[in-house]
Design a protein that fits this description.
TIM Barrel; 37% helix; binds NADP nicotinamide-adenine-dinucleotide phosphate
Length: 294
């Protein structure tokens, strides 16, 4: 089974393509290449500035729209009930589709959580109206989820969070399991630990010796081992690449299996320290970044 069934019965492919930091001019080719290689899930966001190119890549691939799972995110400057309804219109128009498969809130925006709750209410309206097939959140902690569930009528289908062998978020994953939320890993192969130009003091998961040894045993790459680790532990993963060979490699993880011992060795790499931003840190400047009209 190479897909997950969300809490409302909608099916989500286990491995998708992420497009954060994919330049618009390379995004069309990356999406087309992924779809031609058999990928059926693309994860973008209003804030990535490449929804239009994702739509173009989809059309150029020739793969029917209904065969592809399209996920995008509402940015915080579009939080609030009416603004989020309009954010859907902007995203759908840029992608060139009538309906989205999954629409999620990009950040908890802890400093204005009331507006986050209003946005989520708008997602529930979009879901009820059949304009999105599933709704969810991103970068929520267990505390954010608890606050959300105090007013939400629909349990989020996914929570997309930083998750790789150096930051495995066991407590959050347990909260997801309790609530019926699918864990979706961003930076699933540790991109945030080695983004080019983001500082040299970080330790790259991609260069981890334990993962390298396990990869050698299976004749697979470190990225494939990490993606297989996510898959065997029941997570959705959305590795980003603009390189056709690496895109194909990241989809090719279904012909080998990690042993319980290997999974445990990867689990043991967790440092408990995130590389990305703390979702509780107040960052009002995020609200100044506006998402253009379609
Ligand atoms: N919700 C959020 O706040 C949030 C935050 C960050 C990311 N995301 C989502 O998650 C997606 C993935 O996360 P990410 O982009 O941070 O990191 P990632 O997918 O873990 O890693 C991407 C990096 O790995 C390289 N790469 C890809 N496949 C490879 C392979 N097989 N071997 C070696 N290197 C490989 C890519 O370079 P090339 O392109 O040159 O191959 C890129 O530098 C994003 O694109 C985005 O959709 C969401």
């Amino acid at each position: 089974m190479n897909e997950w069934i969300l809490n409302n019965g909608v099916r989500l492919p286990a491995i998708g393509l992420g497009v954060f930091q994919s330049p618009p001019d390379e995004t069309v080719a990356a999406v087309e290449s992924a779809l031609r290689a058999g990928c059926r899930h693309i994860d973008t966001a209003a804030a990535y500035g490449n929804e239009r190119e994702v739509g173009e890549g989809l059309r150029r691939s020739g793969v029917p729209r209904e065969d592809v799972f399209l996920e995008t995110k509402v940015w915080v400057s579009d939080y609030g009930y009416d603004r989020t309804l309009h954010a859907f219109d902007k995203a759908a128009a840029k992608l060139g589709v009538d309906r989205l498969d999954l629409l999620i809130l990009h950040q908890p925006a802890a400093e204005r959580f009331e507006s986050t709750l209003e946005s989520y209410r708008a997602l529930q309206t979009l879901l009820a109206d059949g304009r999105v097939r599933a709704i969810g959140v991103s970068n929520f902690t267990p505390a954010h989820l608890e606050r959300l569930m105090g007013s939400a009528t629909v349990v989020p289908a996914v929570n997309q969070v930083e998750l790789h062998p150096y930051f495995a978020q066991a407590e959050l994953q347990e909260a997801h399991a309790r609530l019926g939320i699918l864990t979706q890993a961003w930076s699933p192969i540790g991109g945030i630990t080695f983004y080019p130009g983001w500082g040299d003091e970080r330790r790259s998961v991609m260069d981890d010796p334990t993962i390298g040894k396990i990869a050698g045993v299976h004749g697979k790459s470190p990225a494939q081992v990490m993606l297989r680790w996510h898959y065997q532990q029941g997570r959705s993963a959305i590795p980003k690449s603009v390189n056709p060979a690496r895109i194909a490699q990241n989809l090719d993880i279904f012909d080998f299996a990690l042993s319980e011992h290997e999974l445990a060795r990867i689990d043991a790499l967790d440092t408990g320290v995130r590389s990305g931003p703390d979702p509780d840190v107040v960052a009002p400047e995020r609200f100044e970044f506006l998402i253009p009209e379609a």
